[in-house]
Design brief:
The protein has 14 helices and no strands. The protein folds into 3 domains: 128 residues, Ferritin (Up-down Bundle), CATH 1.20.1260; 142 residues, no CATH class; 56 residues, Diphtheria Toxin Repressor, domain 2 (Orthogonal Bundle). Helix 1 runs parallel beside helix 3 and helix 4 runs antiparallel to helix 6. 78% of the residues lie in helices and 0% in strands. The chain is mainly alpha-helical and 374 residues long.
């Protein structure tokens, strides 16, 4: 037995004892008997964890330390007593969410099933926090993972075009302010176009692919928990349906029927309800987002660069600015398809931001060009 193992056992014990203490206080301060029952059940699970770690400490030949609730646990218990359990549920949900993987990699905890139970508790508190006013609320509980609207391609495309136009317009204006020739401005603009488009595409691919891998891992964890603890998963699913507004009896009966089906059907329901993940999408296509982002960035970047292929000097600067103003206004108005805001105001806002950025870079370019003649 290593000293760091004993220290880990004691730290785990302290956390579990705090949870038993706090969940018991929540149950005592909760007027809704259904909610109070949930807190009592959670406290019972944590009490088993306490016994487990106490046993590990004894096996290591050490004495079990006396229990004193932490300052944070006592503070939350005091808030719950004064303002009601719901006043601290969101805070506990955040803590539980961060601690959901605390037992991962601890062989004793994983073998005893403690890791899966802690992840279960994180999801339960996520449901309680999401259900406004307790389980009688009608809001949909959302758990681990990111809620997606399914607009990866549109989002990536709009952002790509906006970034391409704004960044390359500012770039060519900075170079033009330095007083270099038409050819140098064209080369700089095209280089900025390619560098930015490749960077955007790679960033989108990594972002979406990482999300897919995260979702796949979460689904794998859910599959294991369904196989190992179907009763626990049924309780969680019943709680979700109660958070959606179903009566307790109906919520439990529905959850029991779904879990009884087993297999991919039950897993599909759990993944959708607990994780807010559509197993058929998993965050969208990484390649679709990357290609769309690359193409739209390049299109946006061409708007301020292309005039330099036909004009030079002040005429090129004016043509680039006019085409960029039109492009910025169009992109700003286009974003309102997703936000529902006023297209005229958003278009003008984009134009104002773009002109300010270009003015700054043009001024810096003029300053540098005058100080260090090229």
């Amino acid at each position: 037995m290593k000293n760091n193992d004993l220290a880990r056992y004691r730290a785990n014990l302290e956390g579990e004892r705090d949870a038993v203490f706090l969940y018991g206080k929540l149950a005592a301060s909760e007027p809704n008997p259904d909610l109070a029952g949930v807190y009592t059940r959670l406290a019972g699970t944590e009490a088993r964890h306490v016994s487990f770690w106490e046993g590990k400490i004894v096996e290591a030949g050490a004495a079990v330390p006396p229990f004193k609730p932490s300052f944070n646990a006592r503070l939350q218990a005091r808030y719950a007593k004064r303002y009601g359990a719901q006043s601290v549920v969101s805070s506990i949900a955040r803590v539980e969410g961060k601690a959901a993987g605390s037992y991962d990699g601890q062989p004793e905890a994983e073998a005893a099933g403690l890791a899966s139970e802690e992840r279960s508790h994180a999801r339960v508190f996520g449901a309680l926090a999401a259900a406004s006013g307790g389980l009688a609320g009608g809001e949909v509980a959302r758990f681990e993972g990111r809620h997606r609207s399914g607009g990866n391609a549109l989002r990536a495309g709009t952002l790509g075009a906006n970034d391409g136009l704004l960044s390359v317009y500012s770039l060519v204006m900075g170079v033009a302010g330095a007083g270099v020739g038409k050819r140098e401005i064209l080369v700089t603009g095209i280089a900025g176009l390619l560098a930015g488009a490749l960077s955007m595409a790679l960033g989108e691919w990594i972002s979406v692919q990482s999300s897919r891998e995260l979702y796949e891992r979460q689904i794998g964890i859910e599959r294991d928990e369904l196989a190992d603890s179907p009763e626990e998963e049924m309780e969680e699913l019943a709680l979700i349906y109660r958070a959606k507004g179903l009566e307790p009896g109906m919520a439990r009966a529905t959850a029991e029927r779904i879990i009884a089906r087993g297999g991919e059907s039950a897993l599909d329901t759990l993944v959708r309800e607990e994780l807010s993940i559509d197993p058929k999408e998993l965050g969208g296509s990484a390649w679709e987002a990357a290609i769309t982002s690359f193409g739209l960035f390049a299109v946006g970047a061409l708007i301020p660069v292309l005039p330099y292929a036909f004009f030079s000097g002040q005429a090129a600067i004016l043509a680039s600015t006019l085409s960029s103003v039109v492009g910025l206004f169009g992109i700003g108005a286009l974003t309102t398809l997703m936000t529902g805001k006023n297209p005229l105001l958003h278009g003008l806002r984009h134009v104002l931001i773009g002109l300010m950025a270009a003015a700054v870079t043009f001024g810096i370019g003029r300053l540098i060009g005058g100080s260090f003649p090229l």
